[in-house]
Structures are given as structure tokens and as C-alpha cells.
Write a structure and sequence with these properties.
875 residues; mainly alpha; two-stranded antiparallel sheet
């Protein structure tokens, strides 16, 4: 077989399979979801699409119902479409968010028995289910034969039930028998296969905690009371809850949200129900507010739901004012004026339950027009009746009546959602351009990889094919850019602010800026590397944005401190764009490291020599992962503090994983150098396995032991390694000398770092001017500011080293990757790990730390492996 034939096969193999793998990975987002071929999509008809445009207020912003429903379903269920499973464990129906939220209140008796509340912490799920499962095992022991009965009695008497013990008992009883099937089902519940519980189980199951028997709602209430007493008891300290108590509070919030939407009842202090109608701003409502507040201050009076809600809304307004300005409506003209402006502009809307369940006369006394209220109440009751009669298939006329009645009622009160704005946001939700961008970037990356190593000589047929492949790759890159630009155009028009107010927006903006900068460099120099690096980094960033649960894609109301578009665009956009330039520089550095990994040196090291870090790191990684997985901890480890055990295990796993990756990448680079075709095939297999793992974790489509053994960080790691090997297999067949390629890539990296430093300096200077205007000082030495300064200085070092000639070409390429870790700390670490300082508008709980740390380790390991192989080859 000739060399040209081999290269052509490798090129098209990498193109075809990488395209398919990347498309699957892009579709793996829990926000997009994968549905089985036979799943019934409930609520996908035109009637629910129209209902999805109904304006509601949610999280401080007026938005269409489909946005609110998707966000709430994702909070409760873990993804935006609910997949119901049959007795055989196979999906029977996939409920769209709007239909699910409507059906919750129409048929609560059905949904209370469905496993829809996400419980992704195995020890908490075991605690919730252990008492009931133990009782079922005892009941099975009473009807079984002596041998199996004694086995089940001994199992029920164990201090802790384990999935493996239940499955062993099922095998002993006979897996085809009724007892065996029951035990297998119990093992699946207590194990890691099923991550959801039904609301009825959470509401009724008795659990054993600290020697007491109590229900989950009562236990969660005690935890919240403990937290509140510690916070407001005078010490001011945040309570030290155990890890399982923290997870219990998160689960309680999901459960209470479902209850509020199911019953249209929620606490007046924090309404969780649908907020569907604006509040009146006229004097009638102000008078009713004062009367409700005064009535609530009397100890012998009980407030109606409407009175309680109105009184708490007045309290919320009072808390936004200095105490010296406090008054009641009707007592002070200036206060009444401010209260009226607040009601018409920023007050929360009335909950649906209050509007539906209150007396019509009482609603009229509060200032709501009686005729429009009656029409809305009747139309919504008709909607629920129609949903109850035909779940997921309401007539379009019933929905139109609700929308018309809500619009008439809202328009009569003043502030109401504009139908054009609601349709625009619905269009953004349906088209999902940010979810489609990874597929375009993946296609561009695959085509550019396929064209790598060939000359676009239009005088030959092969050259024409190469030019066509390269051109299509550029089209894929530009298509990804166009999709993201369209998405940002819609988001900016909807939110009316610059497109970098949340962590999700900064990540997708960085992807867009990286791809655009790579395209610009490619159009100037036509070396293929800029487009390749830009599409690769943009693909990784968009996949992270769509799959990381800590990155909330919803459009949110921004804090008052950010509500200055001129400063927001002038300060935040340059900072985030500098991160994009640094990410592109890192992409060039990774390509240069890939060239070093696959280059042919004077001395070819042995595989045994290269595998030394692997042999040391693998045992450490296995030990660390064993300690991180709570389902497989030994009893001696369970006696240790869970938080410190997690920290220690994470450190051991990170060290072992880094060494393992260094040795593994070294061996893979040697494989790509010796046999590019085999390396490409292996890379495709690994990338496919990683994509399948991401799909399994994100969508729950895989059941059984494999699903419980998979972790999202493992799936990402395997996919990254596979992708890296595919790239190395293409870099191993150069048309020019490796030294020249590395010089070119290092030069591009140097230019990208220069652009990043300039943008970072500009953003920091403008931020200091904004801080002087808002906070009264240019600099406060808080973590966000300090890490921006650190990042600036970190990147100055390689630039000065290159300028003075004291840094080698490989050192410059490696530094572009190593220095990016400071960007990760500034961008991710401060917001998710530290969460302190005056930049608290960007802070978020959670953080998907394992995925981010896995990606960081993989990036560093590529450079470490290149340095290791170079050192072994030159010694």
C-alpha cells in the first residue's frame, strides 16, 4: 500500500468518524436530550407551543412559560424533558416541559407515583430508602422457604443494606421468581442505576436518622431551621452542615418546588408557583396592602392567601428602603409615589394559586378588574379540565382562550409581557443555536483535520480534493460562528444587556471570540493551524457550556450594579475576550505539543521507558477514585469525615491521573509516530466511548452496572484522549519538517498571547474606572481583581522571555498551556470555589469541579508528555 493511499484512508476515516462522534457528543447535552426511537413526545403539539408563549414572571424577569417550565423541570428532574420509564425499565414517554408543568396540577395523583425528583447522591438515597426496603425484605422473609427466608432475615438484620447483597439474595431465590424480581428491583432502587424518586416516596417514607424515625419533609425542615437559627441567632456564622445535610436541603428545594407547582400553593414569603398576573399599581391596591399588613400584625388574626401575599410584598418593598423612610401606604405622599413606581416596575407578580383560589370579591377589593379576573379563572380551569381529560393533547381553542384572557387581564393592569418579546424568546428556545454550534464546529474540525498534511494544489485532482475539504472545513467553522452570533443577537435583544452577565454566557462568548480570532488569523496566513485551533477550542468550550450543570443557560435578571451597558460592554467583554485569546494561544500550544509527541527524533525511546509515569500513576488514580465513590467505600473509610475524605481522595486521584495521562500520551505519541493509521483508529474508538459515556451520564439512557460505574469526568477524559490521539495521528504525517511547524505554531501562540494581554489590560483599566464610579475606589484587592492581575503578570513572563530570547520555541508553546491555568482560576475558581468578594454577581454553587479539573489535567498532561518524550528521545 502506497504512502499516499495510507494518508488518504487516515484522512477520510478521521473525518467521517470524528464528525459522527462529535455530533453525538453535541446532542448529549441534558438541555437538548436524546430520546429513544419509540419514545412518545407528549406536549409537542401546536397547542402547547402557543401556551409556551404565555408571559410569566420568574426569577425577577418576565419570560414565556416555556422558558420557566424548562428551567423548573431541569431543577427538579435534572434535564428539561421528563422521560417516564415502564415496569421493564424502558422509556414509555417523554414529556415536554410546558405539558409536564400543566399536567402536574391537573393530575397530581399520577405524577406523585412517578420517579421524577432527582437524587444524585447515593448515601442520601440509601438513607431515604433503607427503612422501607428493610421492611420489604422482612416481609419477603416471612413467605419464603427456610433457606431463603433465613438468608433474607439475616439480610434485614444487617446494619447497612448494600446493592450487592440484595442482588446475591435475588440470585439465591431465583431471578425468575417473584421474590428474585422484587429483590432485583430493590437493589436497583438502592444502587446507582436509578437516580430519581417519586414525590410520594419522599413525602411518606419513614427514615432512620440519629436514632429517630421521621419523614423526609420533617427532617429537611429541621435542617433548614437549624441553619436559620445559627445564621440569625446573633453569631452571624454560617452553620456547618454535614455533606448529607447539604444534599438533603438541595433535594428539599426540588421537592417543595414540585409541590408548589402541583398544588398552586407556596409560602407567601417565597412564592414558587406560576406568577402570571402583574400587581395593580393604583391606590386601591395600596390601600388593600396597608389593611393586610395591619391585620397581619394583630396576633388573633388569620390572613387569607391573598392578604398574606400582599402583606409580604409590602414587607419586601420596605426592606429595600432605609428604615427612616418606612411608612404604610396612605401615610406619606412620597412613600406612596415610590411604592407605586415599584409596583409598576419591579414588584413580583401575583401567583396563579392566589388568583385561582381567592374569592372574586377579595380580588376586586385588591384592585383587580372583576370581569377580566372571572374570564381568566374560568379559562384556566377549562384548560386544566381539558388536560385532565386528554393528558398531553389539549385543544388549541382552550389554550387560545387562556392566552386571550390573561392578556386582557394583564393589559388592564399595565405592565405585561410583550407578545413580540415572548415570541422572540420562544424562537430562541426552540432553535437553540448554542446547542447546534458544537455540531458545526465539530464538522469544521473534522474537515480541517482531514485536509491537514496535504497541499491544496489546484493543478492536480488530489490538490483540488484537498482544497475542497479545507474550504468545507472553513464553512463549518463559519457556520458555528454564525449560529453563536445569531444566538447572542437574540439573547441581547431579550435581556437588553451585554451578552456576558452569567458564567454560561462568558463561556459561549469565549468560544465565539476564539473561533472568530482563529478565523481572522487563518484568513491572513492560510496555514490551517489557526482554523484548526479555533474550531477545536470552540468545540470544547461549547460542549462544556451545554453539558456542565453548573452553567445555567437561562436568561437571568442581572444585579443593579451591572445595569450599565456602556460599562458592562467596556469592562466585561474585553476581559472575557482576553480569555478567548489565551484559549486560542493554548490551542496553538497543544498543536505544537502534539507535533513534539509525534516527531521522529535521533533516538527512539522504548515503550517501557515511556510508560514509567503510567505505572506509578495508575495505582494512585484507582485509589483516589475508590475513595471518591461513596457507593464503594469500605467501612473503615466511612468512619472518616466525608468532606476531608473527598478532599484527600481528589488530591490522590488528581496526582495519579496526571501521571497516568503523561505516560499514556507519551505512548500514544509514539504509536502515532510509528503507525498513524492504527493511532487514528484507536483515537476514534476512544472518542466514541467517551461520547457514549457522556450521553449515558447526561441522558440516563444506559441502565445497569455500567451506568453506575460511569462518571461524567471519566467520560470526558476518555473522549479528550481519543480526540487528542486523532489529532496526533494527523500531525504524525507532516508535509514539512516538524521544527518548522512548531516554530509556526509558537509564533501564532505568541501573537494570540499579545492580543490577550492587551485586552486584559484594557478591561482591567476600564473596570477600575467603573469601580471608582460605583464603589468609590479603583482597587480593593479582592480575589477577582487579584487574579486578573496575576493572570496579566503570568502571561507577561513568556512574552518577555520570548522578546529577550531567553525562552525556547517549545518553552513558549508549553507556557501557553501552563499559563492558561491562571485563567481557569480567575474565571472558574474564584466564581465556584472561593465565592467571596464584591464581584459576587458571578458566583455559583456547585461547579462540576471534576469535569473542569479533568480537562485541566488532560491539557497539562499533553505538554508534560511532550516534554517527557523529548527528554527521553534526546538523552
Amino acid at each position: 500500500m502506497t504512502r499516499s493511499t495510507t494518508l488518504r484512508r487516515i484522512r477520510w476515516l478521521s473525518f467521517g468518524l470524528v464528525s459522527a462522534i462529535a455530533a453525538v457528543a453535541a446532542l448529549s447535552s441534558p438541555r437538548v436530550g436524546l430520546r429513544g426511537a419509540h419514545d412518545a413526545r407528549v406536549g409537542s403539539g401546536r397547542a402547547y407551543a402557543l401556551l409556551g408563549d404565555l408571559p410569566v414572571e420568574h426569577r425577577g424577569r418576565v419570560k414565556p412559560l416555556n422558558s420557566m417550565a424548562a428551567e423548573e423541570v431541569e431543577r427538579i428532574y435534572g434535564r428539561s424533558a421528563i422521560k417516564l420509564l415502564g415496569p421493564d425499565g424502558k422509556a414509555t414517554a417523554s414529556w415536554e416541559p410546558v405539558a409536564a408543568v400543566l399536567d402536574w396540577s391537573a393530575r397530581p395523583e399520577f405524577w406523585d407515583d412517578q420517579d421524577i425528583i432527582l437524587v444524585d447522591y447515593p448515601p442520601l438515597k440509601r438513607l431515604l430508602l433503607e427503612a422501607s426496603i428493610r421492611e420489604q425484605v422482612r416481609s419477603l422473609a416471612g413467605v419464603e422457604t427456610s433457606v431463603v427466608g433465613k438468608l433474607l432475615q439475616a439480610l434485614a438484620a444487617q446494619p447497612e443494606l448494600a446493592e450487592a447483597d440484595l442482588r446475591a439474595a435475588a440470585h439465591q431465590a431465583g431471578e425468575a421468581s417473584t421474590t428474585g424480581k422484587t429483590l432485583d428491583a430493590l437493589a436497583a432502587k438502592i444502587g446507582g442505576d436509578l437516580k430519581w424518586l417519586s414525590p410520594r416516596v419522599l413525602e411518606k417514607t419513614q427514615l432512620q436518622h440519629e436514632g429517630r424515625t421521621l419523614t423526609f419533609p420533617r427532617w429537611a425542615g429541621e435542617i433548614l431551621d437549624k441553619k436559620d437559627r445559627t445564621r440569625f441567632g446573633g453569631t452571624g456564622a454560617v452553620p456547618e452542615l454535614t455533606l448529607i445535610e447539604e444534599k438533603a436541603t438541595e433535594l428539599a428545594e426540588q421537592f417543595f418546588r414540585y409541590q408548589a407547582l402541583r398544588e398552586h400553593k407556596s409560602p407567601a414569603t417565597k412564592p414558587l408557583d406560576l406568577l402570571v398576573i402583574p400587581r395593580p399599581s393604583a391606590g386601591t391596591y395600596a390601600k388593600y396592602s396597608a389593611e393586610s399588613f395591619e391585620k397581619g400584625m394583630k396576633p388573633d388574626q388569620t390572613l387569607s392567601p391573598l392578604e398574606a401575599n400582599v402583606a409580604n410584598t409590602l414587607v419586601e418593598f420596605l426592606q429595600s428602603l432605609p428604615s427612616k423612610e418606612w411608612a404604610l401606604p396612605g401615610e406619606d405622599g412620597m412613600f406612596d409615589q415610590k411604592f407605586g413606581l415599584w409596583l409598576g416596575d419591579r414588584s413580583p407578580w401575583l401567583p396563579l394559586g392566589v388568583v385561582i383560589q381567592s374569592d372574586e370579591s377579595e380580588l376586586s377589593r385588591a384592585g383587580l378588574p372583576l370581569k377580566q379576573v372571572v374570564a381568566f379563572r374560568k379559562s384556566y380551569r377549562d384548560l386544566e379540565d381539558a388536560e385532565r381529560a386528554e393528558p398531553g393533547n389539549v385543544p388549541e381553542a382552550v389554550v387560545v382562550a387562556v392566552i386571550t384572557a390573561a392578556r386582557d387581564l394583564g393589559a388592564s393592569l399595565g405592565r405585561y409581557g410583550d407578545s413580540t418579546a415572548m415570541a422572540r424568546e420562544s424562537r430562541l428556545n426552540r432553535f437553540a443555536p448554542f446547542s447546534k454550534a458544537p455540531m458545526a464546529y465539530a464538522l469544521g474540525l473534522a474537515l480541517l483535520l482531514a485536509s491537514l498534511g496535504t497541499k491544496a494544489d489546484l493543478r492536480t485532482a488530489a490538490g483540488k480534493r484537498s482544497a475542497a475539504v479545507y474550504g468545507l472545513g472553513m464553512v463549518g467553522l463559519m457556520a458555528g460562528i454564525a449560529l453563536q452570533l445569531y444566538g447572542f443577537l437574540l439573547r441581547s435583544r431579550i435581556a437588553r444587556w451585554g451578552p456576558v452577565t452569567t458564567m454560561y454566557e462568558t463561556v459561549v462568548w469565549a468560544a465565539l471570540a476564539t473561533a472568530t480570532l482563529g478565523l481572522a488569523i487563518e484568513l491572513l496566513w492560510r496555514k490551517k493551524y489557526a482554523a484548526l485551533a479555533g474550531s477545536g477550542v470552540a468545540l470544547l468550550a461549547t460542549l462544556l457550556a451545554e453539558n456542565a450543570s453548573c452553567l445555567d443557560p437561562s436568561i437571568q435578571a442581572i444585579p443593579l450594579v451591572l445595569r450599565t451597558n456602556r460599562w458592562l460592554v467596556g469592562h466585561v467583554l474585553p476581559i472575557v475576550s482576553s480569555y478567548a485569546a489565551f484559549a486560542l494561544a493554548m490551542g496553538f500550544g497543544l498543536l505544537a505539543a502534539g507535533c513534539c509527541l509525534t516527531a521522529t527524533y535521533r533516538r527512539s525511546p522504548s515503550c517501557r521507558e515511556l510508560a514509567w509515569p503510567l505505572s506509578l500513576g495508575m495505582p494512585l488514580y484507582v485509589l483516589g477514585r475508590f475513595g471518591l465513590d461513596p457507593s464503594y467505600r469500605l467501612s473503615p473509610l466511612s468512619m472518616l469525615d466525608a468532606r476531608w475524605l473527598e478532599y484527600a481522595s481528589s488530591g490522590v486521584a488528581a496526582l495519579g491521573g496526571g501521571l497516568t495521562l503523561v505516560g499514556g500520551f507519551s505512548l500514544l505519541g509514539e504509536l502515532a509516530n510509528r503507525s498513524p493509521r492504527r493511532a487514528c483508529v484507536l483515537g476514534v474508538v476512544l472518542a466514541a466511548a467517551g461520547s457514549a459515556g457522556v450521553v449515558a451520564v447526561a441522558t440516563g439512557t444506559v441502565q445497569g452496572p455500567l451506568a453506575s460505574a460511569l462518571a461524567s469526568s471519566d467520560a470526558w477524559l476518555v473522549g479528550l484522549v481519543g480526540g487528542a490521539l486523532i489529532v496526533m495521528s494527523r500531525l504524525a504525517v507532516p508535509t514539512r519538517e516538524p521544527v518548522a511547524r512548531i516554530e509556526t505554531l509558537a509564533g501564532f501562540s505568541f501573537r494570540a498571547m499579545q492580543v490577550g494581554v492587551l485586552l486584559l489590560a484594557a478591561g482591567a483599566i476600564l473596570g477600575a474606572a467603573w469601580a471608582r464610579k460605583v464603589w468609590g475606589g479603583y482597587w480593593r484587592w479582592e480575589p477577582k481583581e487579584v487574579w486578573v492581575l496575576i493572570t496579566f503578570l503570568v502571561y507577561l513572563a513568556p512574552l518577555l522571555g520570548r522578546f529577550t530570547g531567553r525562552m525556547s520555541t517549545f518553552g513558549l508553546a508549553a507556557s501557553s498551556v501552563v499559563c492558561f491555568m491562571s485563567v481557569l482560576v480567575s474565571w472558574y475558581g474564584v466564581n465556584f470555589a472561593l465565592r467571596v468578594g464584591m464581584h459576587n454577581f458571578g458566583f455559583t454553587e456547585g461547579g462540576d469541579g471534576r469535569i473542569v479539573s479533568t480537562c485541566a489535567l488532560a491539557l497539562l498532561a499533553v505538554v508534560g508528555a511532550a516534554a517527557w518524550r523529548r527528554s527521553r528521545s534526546q538523552s
